[in-house]
Design goal:
Elements: E1 5-12, H1 16-27, E2 33-37, H2 43-48, E3 55-60, H3 88-97, H4 99-118, E4 127-131, H5 139-152, E5 156-159, H6 166-171, H7 181-196, H8 198-203, E6 210-213, H9 223-240, E7 243-248, H10 267-270
Parallel strand pairs: 1-2, 1-7, 2-3, 3-4, 4-5, 6-7
Helix pairs in contact: 3-4, 4-5
């Protein structure tokens, strides 16, 4: 197997200026993969400037901004404006309490998002899938993603499992100094969800596997942290005979720029100066 490292940016196409800032990382040789938000108002313009040498994933979004499907068909997911309104915890509860119905509605929205992005990609594009804020790991969402992907009739090249390998930190506990307690909790939650999804993922035989790097330093993938941790992740990926995906969120959003949902509680995260730390 040819070992690949994907230096990956989530959230491509929040707005066109943000997209250009992400692509500036590619121009400097610091990026070779992006995830595309299907429900962006600037999707067509952002796809027009997207270079053909980048690996492209569909960044399925069920938590921010307007839906792509008819909102009347997915009332459990959106508010009266047709904007997504479920927190991660709320969606997780729905996954267990109204599993069949929420899965059905999620599959409708998922199919709509995939079709929209596919309309800008070559006919031979093989699906690469991940999720905004990792909602796709919630069991009902994961099942809906699988259903929608199978419906396209296309090969699936990659599905992200956003879980940093615990083995690295068990063998080298000193590396935890680079990690915040909140990120440890997030990695625990996503590890548990990956365990719940393991059977379905096992049936999904086509995707390439990759070791994930980004949860234990979520929001703070600085040069110092990446340099300290990367050799251990490379060694783990080689041991597991997998590729390696490093998830970044470059491209700060400036105040006053268009946003998926101006009322979002996550706005400070997108305007954080941490997004500029890689320049130093």
């Amino acid at each position: 197997m040819t070992f690949l490292i994907y230096y990956h940016s989530d959230d491509y196409a929040f707005n066109i200026d943000h997209a250009r800032r992400i692509l500036s990382c590619r121009d400097k040789g610091a990026l070779n993969s992006v995830s595309i938000l299907a429900n962006s108002a600037c999707l067509a313009e952002a796809m027009e400037i997207l270079p053909g040498d980048l690996a492209v994933s569909i960044h399925l979004n069920f938590c921010e901004g307007p839906c792509v499907a008819d909102p009347a068909r997915i009332p459990l997911l959106v508010d009266k404006r047709g904007y997504f309104c479920r927190s991660f915890a709320q969606m997780l509860v729905l996954s267990f309490t109204r599993h069949r119905e929420v899965r059905r509605q999620l599959a409708i929205e998922c199919s709509a998002q995939i079709r929209k992005v596919l309309s800008f990609l070559p006919d031979d594009y093989a699906l690469r899938i991940d999720g905004h804020r990792h909602y796709h790991m919630i069991p009902a969402v994961f099942e809906a993603v699988y259903m929608a992907a199978q419906k396209t009739g296309r090969k699936t090249a990659y599905v992200r499992i956003p879980r940093d390998p615990w083995r690295i930190f068990l063998l080298h506990p000193r590396l935890l100094r680079h990690t915040r307690p909140l990120d440890i909790v997030k990695n625990l939650v996503l590890s548990a969800l990956s365990f719940l999804n393991r059977r379905l993922y096992g049936r999904w035989k086509e995707p390439a596997r990759a070791v994930f790097f980004g949860m234990m330093c979520a929001g703070e993938m600085t040069s110092e942290r990446v340099r300290a941790l990367l050799p251990f992740y490379e060694k783990q990926a080689a041991k597991e005979e997998k590729h390696l995906e490093l998830m970044f969120h470059p491209g700060i959003l400036l105040k006053g720029e268009p946003f998926l949902d101006p009322s979002s509680v996550h706005l400070p995260f997108y305007e954080s100066e941490n997004r500029n730390l890689g320049k130093r």
